[in-house]
């Protein structure tokens, strides 16, 4: 695993920087053939009961601790700090010696102002807070849709996270491992091993429009975990989103809504499609986080099938107001 420093970002990567679906053609994965169909069938409770769950959560033992914090500030770093402080500091979630994987959205060759990727200030703040909490290593990685080298650089995340003390890893083919999932749709699939082998995972998406899913946030962000022919996962997109969220239970979800892409997502590009919301929210519940975050785009949780499906699988609740929460 190669750390990317500020002065050596992407040096020597050459053609391996273009990480797309074709790059993983040699990896094996298995669908459950009976579920290969268009549309979104209802979640299968018996399949969910047998599915593998990779659980990185910490016990919610304090009955007074917040489950959702919504912070507003024009400075994304300050908003992130406020949200994490309200949740009880990152030390509530990260222990000394932990290996922490931070999984932002670095899907596109887009600048922060275009709101196609997670804001780099949000990512860098979480890196610093994780290091301050005693993390032994902090890894930042995502499976880009555009050329990974250019996406990491243009987003500003590579340099910001590295400067804050993270090991920034490009999603090279050798970092993917065939991973059993055993959901109703997917038996196994190549996934980024540095994320799944960490002690703690912080899921850090950006809230934005998605042309296929309608909305992308904490639940949809797990598409950046998988390799292979990801286009095939869109055949039953809503159910796949829910089942990936059922498979990975992160330690914490932090949604960047400092600037939101209202149309033409997930890639965007036109600044007319972007509006400031100056919000960062943190939650132990990804369903509730998405249920609130989508309102910042003028939507409701009921508009999105994946939110309903994830709730039915026990991933969380769409009734975000029922959580112990605070708006800052």
Describe this structure in words.
A hairpin with a 5-residue loop joins strand 7 and strand 8. The longest helix has 13 residues, at 120-132. The chain has helices at residues 45-50, 76-86, 120-132, 148-155, 157-163, 193-196, 237-247, 286-293, 305-312; strands at 30-31, 54-55, 68-72, 99-104, 137-140, 167-168, 176-180, 186-192, 200-204, 206-210, 214-216, 248-249, 252-261, 274-283, 325-327. Strands 3, 4, 5, 6, 9, 10, 11, 13, 14 and 15 form a ten-stranded mixed sheet that branches. Strands 1-8-7 form a three-stranded antiparallel sheet. With 328 residues, the protein is an alpha/beta fold. It contains nine helices and 15 strands.
Question: What are the main properties of this structure?
Answer:
alpha/beta, 9 helices, 328 residues, ten-stranded mixed beta sheet, three-stranded antiparallel beta sheet
What's the topology here?
Blueprint: E1 30-31, H1 45-50, E2 54-55, E3 68-72, H2 76-86, E4 99-104, H3 120-132, E5 137-140, H4 148-155, H5 157-163, E6 167-168, E7 176-180, E8 186-192, H6 193-196, E9 200-204, E10 206-210, E11 214-216, H7 237-247, E12 248-249, E13 252-261, E14 274-283, H8 286-293, H9 305-312, E15 325-327
Parallel strand pairs: 2-12, 3-15, 4-5, 4-9, 5-6, 9-13, 10-13
Antiparallel strand pairs: 1-8, 3-14, 7-8, 10-11, 13-14
Helix pairs in contact: 2-3, 3-5, 7-9
């Amino acid at each position: 695993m190669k750390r990317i420093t500020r002065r050596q970002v992407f040096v020597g990567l050459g053609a391996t920087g273009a990480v797309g679906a074709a790059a993983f053609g040699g990896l094996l994965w298995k669908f459950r053939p009976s579920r290969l169909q268009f549309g979104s069938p209802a979640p299968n409770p018996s399949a969910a009961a047998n599915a593998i769950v990779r659980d990185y959560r910490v016990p919610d033992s304090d009955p007074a601790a917040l489950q959702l914090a919504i912070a507003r500030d024009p400075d994304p770093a300050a908003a992130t700090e406020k949200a994490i402080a309200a949740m009880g500091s990152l030390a509530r979630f990260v222990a000394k010696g932990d290996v922490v994987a931070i999984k932002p959205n670095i899907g596109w060759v887009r600048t922060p102002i275009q709101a196609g990727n997670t804001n780099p200030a949000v990512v860098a703040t979480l890196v610093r807070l994780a290091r301050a909490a005693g993390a032994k290593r902090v890894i930042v990685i995502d499976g880009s849709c555009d050329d990974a080298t250019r996406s990491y650089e243009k987003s500003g995340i590579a340099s910001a996270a590295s400067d804050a003390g993270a090991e920034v890893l490009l999603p090279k083919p050798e970092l993917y491992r065939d991973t059993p999932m055993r959901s109703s749709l997917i038996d196994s699939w190549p996934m980024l091993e540095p994320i799944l082998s960490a002690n703690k995972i912080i899921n850090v998406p950006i809230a934005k429009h998605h042309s296929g899913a309608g909305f992308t946030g904490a639940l949809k962000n797990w598409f950046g975990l998988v390799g292979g022919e990801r286009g095939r996962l869109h055949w039953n997109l809503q159910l796949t989103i829910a089942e990936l969220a059922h498979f990975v239970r992160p330690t914490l979800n932090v949604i960047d809504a400092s600037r939101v892409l209202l149309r033409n997502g997930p890639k965007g590009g036109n600044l007319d499609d972007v509006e400031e919301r100056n919000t960062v929210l943190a939650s132990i519940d990804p369903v509730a986080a998405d249920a609130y975050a989508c309102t910042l785009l003028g939507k409701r949780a009921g508009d999105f099938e994946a939110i309903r499906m994830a709730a039915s699988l026990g991933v969380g609740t769409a009734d975000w107001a029922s959580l112990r929460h605070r708006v800052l």
